[in-house]
Amino acid sequence: MQTHTSIDTKKLRDELKARYIVQWVTKFDSNNHIIEVVGYCVRDKKTFGMKTLFYHESETVCRKVCDMLNEEEHNKC
Q: What is the pTM for the complete model shown?
């Protein structure tokens, strides 16, 4: 089994052909040291800092919005 110790996120984003991507939104419980996914967002990777365009608790809803935004470029999220 191969493991990776580092990921170049900029390179990964650049390799994605879709302009809009879905990312998860997390919160950190510092008392219990737990990271929890609280929702998802659609982001525009062409903007500096990747501007958030849409937020929802449902990954399915965000993927549908993202797919609609990427239709012109014929890319899926």
A: 0.70
